């Protein structure tokens, strides 16, 4: 549902032109070779029936903890790809719908560091939700997500940015890591302060690179975008989130706050989806995650 | 006449920015200070002395961390100090639009519109997480936390 009130359109309404920040180097991502997407990221993979049955049997016989296994496939894979794809772009390539919001409309520089900043913003939003899962499960999801993120940065630096020296890559990775700690802390501070002003300073410092000539309308659009995502994450149940049923709302769309009846309806639909009427579910669908919260 | 109006509009922005909360810990750049200086420049208003002092601190701390860049050096040597602030393109329309947005931010409009409940603010996996973070930040990150609580975090991973 595209709406005239979406963050993207909101940012477009600003009459201030995009100014180039003279302090930011103009280095577009110009890859030597573009990493190919793995098969399971490109399309929905359907396993043959016999493989499914074998899998279910193994899970059942060894009493495997599916919440633990799901942390890798959902937290580490699906959720990471979602964050990464928001702003991934290469030189002379047409921007995706979400990337157009960040680079064309907001006028952010098309660099690797900028991609990192936007990705970590999305990862942080998932962190906020993962903290609200039971401790053991949530921590595992977070760990898998961060592991995948840094593995992917390492790959991109070596293959796409063509940094062959392992020492230099490690130095960059350490730098990215300390940036991550700072960004997560300042965004957490903003969330805990329950104030848009604190969130604005954190986003200005990180996503907008401390641009002195910032367009405040665009800053507000990003704040609105973040708050909108957090709202959806708040309303989704642990079970649905843990099973990977969450998608980021596109910047070109908008969300209206739910009425109490709609919240009830959402809960009902989730229960119907994850609980069968006769109480029997496949071994791989077992989970300790709550359906209500 | 129009420059006078621009001055008034910029003054409104500056007085709103002055009400913004101060950063809990010191950063290389501060949104509040940098924007106050910017809009003072646009409106031709004198920058408040307290802000000016802070701004100087800002500038010296960023300079020590940035690499030497020939273009940057040229800019610093041959131009005014406030060169990085764009002034000419601002019209009343643009400024009032900026003011509207800044006001929404100051009033936490979107935080109130998309209100989240305690599920995220007191997460059941880490109920003390945000309290502890704010507690540390309020001390300016200077005071270290207790020996026992630190060890509890190391051993259990819990906050």
From TrEMBL, chain B:
It holds the Pfam family UQCC2_CBP6. Signal peptide: none annotated. GO terms for molecular function: ribosome binding. InterPro entries: Cbp6. This is DEBR0S3_04874g1_1. GO terms for biological process: mitochondrial respiratory chain complex III assembly. It comes from Dekkera bruxellensis. Residues 69-79 have a biased composition (Basic and acidic residues). It comes from the Eukaryota. Residues 56-79 are annotated as: Disordered. The gene is CBP6. GO terms for cellular component: Cbp3p-Cbp6 complex.
């Amino acid at each position: 549902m595209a709406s005239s009130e979406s963050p993207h359109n909101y940012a477009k309404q600003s009459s201030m032109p995009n100014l180039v920040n003279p302090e930011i180097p103009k280095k577009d991502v110009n890859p030597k070779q573009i990493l190919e997407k793995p098969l399971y990221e490109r399309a929905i993979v359907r396993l043959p029936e016999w493989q499914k049955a074998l899998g279910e049997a193994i899970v059942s016989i060894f009493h495997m903890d599916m919440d633990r296994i799901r942390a890798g496939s959902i937290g580490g894979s699906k959720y990471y790809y979602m964050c990464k794809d928001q702003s991934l772009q290469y030189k002379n390539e047409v921007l995706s719908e979400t990337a157009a919001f960040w680079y064309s409309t907001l006028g952010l520089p098309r660099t690797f560091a900028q991609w990192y900043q936007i990705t970590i913003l999305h990862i942080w939003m998932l962190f906020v939700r993962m903290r609200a899962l039971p401790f053991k499960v949530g921590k595992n999801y977070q760990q898998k997500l961060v592991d995948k993120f840094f593995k992917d940065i390492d790959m991109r630096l070596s293959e796409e940015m063509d940094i062959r020296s392992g020492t230099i890559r490690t130095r960059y990775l350490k730098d990215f890591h300390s940036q991550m700690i700072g960004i997560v802390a300042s965004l957490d501070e903003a969330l805990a302060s329950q104030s848009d002003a604190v969130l604005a300073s954190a986003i200005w410092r990180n996503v907008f690179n401390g641009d002195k000539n910032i367009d405040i309308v665009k800053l507000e659009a990003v704040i609105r975008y973040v708050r909108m995502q957090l709202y959806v994450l708040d309303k989704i149940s642990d079970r649905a989130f843990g099973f990977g049923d969450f998608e980021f709302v596109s910047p070109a769309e908008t969300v209206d706050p739910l009425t109490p009846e709609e919240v009830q309806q959402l809960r009902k639909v989730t229960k119907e989806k994850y609980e069968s009427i006769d109480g029997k579910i496949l071994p791989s669908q077992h989970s300790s995650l709550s359906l209500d919260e | 006449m129009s420059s006078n109006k621009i001055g008034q509009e910029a003054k409104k922005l500056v007085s709103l920015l002055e009400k913004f909360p101060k950063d809990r810990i010191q950063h290389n750049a501060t949104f509040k200070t940098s924007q106050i200086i910017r809009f003072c420049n646009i409106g031709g208003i004198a920058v408040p002395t307290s802000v000016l002092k802070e701004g100087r601190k800002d500038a010296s701390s960023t300079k020590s961390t940035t690499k030497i860049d020939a273009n940057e050096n040229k800019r610093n040597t041959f131009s005014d100090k406030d060169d990085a602030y764009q002034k000419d393109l601002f019209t009343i329309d643009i400024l009032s639009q900026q003011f509207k947005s800044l006001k929404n931010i100051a009033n936490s409009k979107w935080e109130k519109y998309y209100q989240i409940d305690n599920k995220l603010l007191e997460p059941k996996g880490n109920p003390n997480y945000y309290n502890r973070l704010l507690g540390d930040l309020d001390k300016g990150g200077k005071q270290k936390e207790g020996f026992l609580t630190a060890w509890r975090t190391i051993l259990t991973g819990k906050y």
